[in-house]
Amino acid sequence: MPFWGILLVFANPSLAGAVPQVVVSRVPDRGVQPQIAMSGDGVLHLIYLKGDPSHSDIFYVRSPDNGGTWSHPVRVNSQPGSALAIGTVRGAHLALGRGGQIHVAWMGSNLSTPKAPGDATPMLYSRSTDDGKSFEPQRNVIQSSPGLDGGGSIAADQNGHVYVAWHAPAPGKKGEQFRRVWISKSMDGGATFAPEVAVSEPSTGACGCCGMRLFAVGGRVIALYRGAAQQVHRGMYLIDCSSDLKESHSTEIAPMEFGVCVMSTSALAQNGGGAVAAWETRGRVFWSQLSSDAPTIVHPHEIDSRSSTCKHPAIAADGEGHLLVVWTEETGWNKGGTIAWEVFDSTGTVLPGATGRAADLPTWDSPAAIWCSNKTLLVLY
Length: 381
Prior knowledge:
Elements: E1 8-10, E2 21-25, E3 32-38, E4 44-52, E5 55-63, E6 74-75, E7 93-96, E8 102-107, E9 123-129, E10 134-135, E11 139-140, E12 153-156, E13 162-169, E14 179-186, E15 197-198, E16 213-217, E17 220-226, E18 236-242, E19 248-254, E20 267-271, E21 274-281, E22 284-289, E23 301-302, E24 311-317, E25 323-329, E26 337-344, E27 350-361, E28 368-371, E29 376-380
């Protein structure tokens, strides 16, 4: 498949060897809400949504040449129209597991089956077969904690563990202030999932129509979610879980007081043996390296933008001290906008010439970013 859209490349020639090259392009087939990962062999794995925003399909493609070409798209969801692009917070998430197996989880649309208990909205999951040439029939992983509104996330490690997360009210409760983050774990590569367990503190709540992010690194499982205590305390929280989910700790990393849902998303990515995080607070985007022992924010950095509408960050590290942060601006309900990006050095300083913008972000879209094997930083939107 050819590379869709216009390929934009920037670099500062006077800093050759110091500033990584950033390549920016539209998603294949003009899809939205890309999620991207790279396997150990340097192959890029990409999923995206396409179709009616209320009843979307998820497609998977792969690239052996750092995004130069993409494979023929394969539909992930076995039931047509069973995913959601509307709102930008409920779309599909991607993780690569043992042997490069592809794992995908997403919040189901109102057409999707199977349902969660009580005929509720499901948290759906599928995994690849035949090296990504097809996917298993979709399954619901919610067993006792229905109540999806904002979307969930997924993580996997090389030991065959797969984790699917979402937020929903505690049993018998209603309201954002009673929502908790739940994780269901598979120990057999996604063949079966154990009953979900709550990993967030009950006092924090969870912002109902906000997304969340899950990531497995260093034998730990970490998550970002937005709280909703008393429906006004909507700070961003970082959860650190043991791999067996028997121990978890929540830390508020960015307090915020706001009386309505902010429909935010966040990002986590690998950086050497640790991870980096990015999130939104009051229309501004921040990022931080996470400490490696018990993940906590080291020092938050704010992106340099004149806009007060920054949302939906994505983040990628190149393993050489550089960090790319990309985000959206001027988006709204049923309204597209702009993406912007900056590259930072290891001290958190923006590199000269390593910034950019693209003004044709489609409605409901958000960016993805990754460090490629040819030492470029790839941004897709």
